[in-house]
Design goal:
By secondary structure, the protein is α/β, with parallel strands linked by helices. It has helices at about 1-35, 35-40, 40-50, 60-80, 90-95, 120, 145-155, 170-180, 210-220, 240-255, 270-275, 295-310, 320-335, 350-355; strands spanning about 135-140, 160-165, 185-190, 230-235, 260, 280-285, 285, 315-320, 340-345.
Amino acid sequence: MFFRVITLILLTVALIFFAFHSANLLESVNNEFSQPESHRNFKRESIASLPLDDTKNNPTFEKKIYKIKDKISTEIKQNTTEDVKLGKSSSEDFDNSKKTRDLDNSFMIYEEPGLKDTWKKNSVQFGKSIKGPKIAIVIDDAGFDKKRTAAVIQLQPPITIAFLTYASDLKKQVRNAKKVGHEIIVHMAMESERENVDPGPNVLLTKNDSKKILNELRWGLNRFNGYVGINNHMGSRFTSDPKGMGIVMRELKRRGLLFLDSRTSRNTIGASVALAYDVPYAQRDFFLDNDASLKAVKKQLQKVESFAKKNGYAVAIGHPKDATLKALSEWLKTLKGRGFAQVPISQLVKYQTSSFSNN
């Protein structure tokens, strides 16, 4: 009888233990798959391509940028007789593929009247004189998870918030973000080198013809307004493709927007093509949360500070993860007192563009 009681107790404890861990496992699975596949796999995309923190002031890296830029610039000059009009400024016309010519063999830059320097008009701090090492914090993947996006909006402004084009209630979420002083960019889904990642719907793919790429790009750009430019969501393959990036830069030039290269690949030609098309350009220096632990994020923020002290500015990209939000909420409050300036990405465009242009 005694042994039966002991056995029954042990079985009960084992069942409770199993039920508890099963619940935790189920919760983690639900959390994982409540996000689109593109969110679940972003870490693999960024880790596979390395943080690239070592290339910022590398002469070989900048020489490569200019070599590609000069080649593209030559092609532009050789094709200036090719008149390419990319459509009117209304979203209705943007979505009409019949009004868009194939752009494969054309490099004519067309700037829509009235849209010049849209990025300056939508900037949070453009024209302000700011002292101290400048740090721009960009939070990607905003909009899809409304609760986490709301938490991002609660961070000390100005944060540069990159909204996914396929999220819902975008206009409302963007309005809430701008109301408290954050700057907005479009987080444009682009093709990855890795076959097992899915950047999401309406992704820019290198295999598509120019009309298709342009229509997908315009679809994303017309989802909401008030932004200063775009950055790439994934995109390790697409940002290495001259044809695709040329189409993107022509449209950004036409709309008066800037480009932030998330640099998910060492082979990115974002800087080169942006310079060739005279598109305002900035680039990521650090990812904050490839390792999403609080300790790791704080360590990355220390690296960001050191980099900013040395170079005068730094751009760091994070995501709406618990550790990232917690670390930033504490860290941002201390920046001003320690001599740093928290700025939106538009404040750093002139610094990064000029650093390439003065070589």
